[in-house]
Design brief:
The protein is α+β, with helices and mostly antiparallel strands. It has 5 helices and 14 strands. Strand 7 and strand 8 form a beta hairpin. The longest helix is centred in the last third of the chain and has 14 residues. It is globular, with a radius of gyration of 20 Å.
Length: about 325
């Protein structure tokens, strides 16, 4: 069975473009998003306010790696997860972000939460609504004692497959002991065909001029319906779109089997089993891989380690409900 699975996985590992690995020059701008990929097209987006329709490319979970630098700190590397999801039927997206240290994904770093809203006055109506730049506002809070308010634009006019979100701070509030930050500029570039995102964050803080602080490249996690379809294909003997690995213990799988997933318990995911496959071998090719466990916690750790060790940016973690 293992040999048959490995054969299928090798044949399924086709021409997916993996995300760029962390760069030696950490203060350089991020590389362009991959221009070609066989990553599946986005699933039908959830119901949302009409003003959010042009922003559907943002919806979902994005995972990848980034680099940080600033004159007052040592350069560093980090893993990151970003999520955008509609807030009911309001013209607002909930935004959440968290990062962890690399090469130790169990060490949390930064986190922030906020809301991105489209201004009603920016809608143009008619067939041109999806093409016109849309004015946006973003509010963000983080655990360092800072609250940021941004204004910016969502622009899809420069390229048929690319969307750019540009945001600059208009106000920054801080607690008495927070480090002073004067301004922040974020530029997020989305490639709609490859479902990848790259961004830069420039910052002026602690007496320094505004300059590059963070840059990262991320990929969009497949939806639950896309993963379920791939699992059903694997269970029926067809070649699935993704490498599907369940890192739960054997007794958990026996009690609640996840059809279509290959079981490699977390303790064995980083070393070969006797005569069996190794998770890092299966995920080394530039194929999209889905790592699953009951709550998503173990899967998240395994996925982060595999991304770092294999340099494959298309490795995602989900829980038993196939949610990121």
């Amino acid at each position: 069975i293992n040999a048959e699975y490995m054969g299928k996985k090798r044949s399924a590992s086709t021409s997916l473009t993996k995300l760029p690995s962390p760069r030696t020059n950490m203060c350089s701008r991020p590389p362009p998003s991959p221009s070609t990929s066989t990553v599946p097209s986005p699933a039908t987006a959830p119901s949302c306010h009409p003003l959010l329709v042009p922003l559907r490319a943002l919806f979902g979970v994005w995972v990848g790696d980034g680099n940080g630098c600033y004159p007052t700190i040592a350069p560093f590397q980090y893993g990151e997860e970003i999520e955008f999801k509609p807030l009911g039927m309001k013209p607002v997206l909930e935004y959440s972000q968290r990062t962890w240290s690399l090469p130790d994904p169990q060490m949390p770093l930064h986190a922030e939460k906020g809301y991105l809203r489209v201004l009603p006055s920016a809608a143009t109506g008619g067939e041109t609504a999806a093409l016109a730049p849309h004015q946006l506002e973003l509010t963000v809070c983080d655990p360092t004692g800072l609250a940021h308010a941004y204004a910016g634009m969502w622009d899809t006019t420069s390229s048929p497959t690319q969307s750019v979100l540009t945001l600059e701070t208009v106000a920054i509030a801080s607690t008495p002991l927070a480090k002073p930050v004067q301004s922040v500029r974020r530029v997020l570039t989305f490639n709609n065909s490859t479902r990848t995102m790259s961004y830069t964050l420039d910052m002026a803080a602690v007496g320094q001029e505004q300059q590059l602080h963070l840059s990262a490249a991320l990929a969009q996690c497949p939806s639950a319906s896309e993963i379920r379809e791939a699992a059903q294909a694997a269970a029926s003997g067809a070649v699935p779109k993704y490498v599907l690995i369940d890192v739960r213990e054997a007794h958990e799988v026996e009690a609640a089997p996840q059809v279509g997933f290959l079981n490699i318990p977390m303790g064995q995911a980083f070393r070969p089993r006797d005569g069996g496959p190794e998770a890092s071998v299966l995920c080394a090719a530039p194929a999209t891989a889905i790592i699953l466990c009951a709550s998503g916690f173990r899967a998240r750790i395994v996925a982060a380690h595999l991304r770092a060790s294999t340099k494959n940016g298309h490795i995602f973690s989900v829980n038993s409900r196939l949610e990121s």
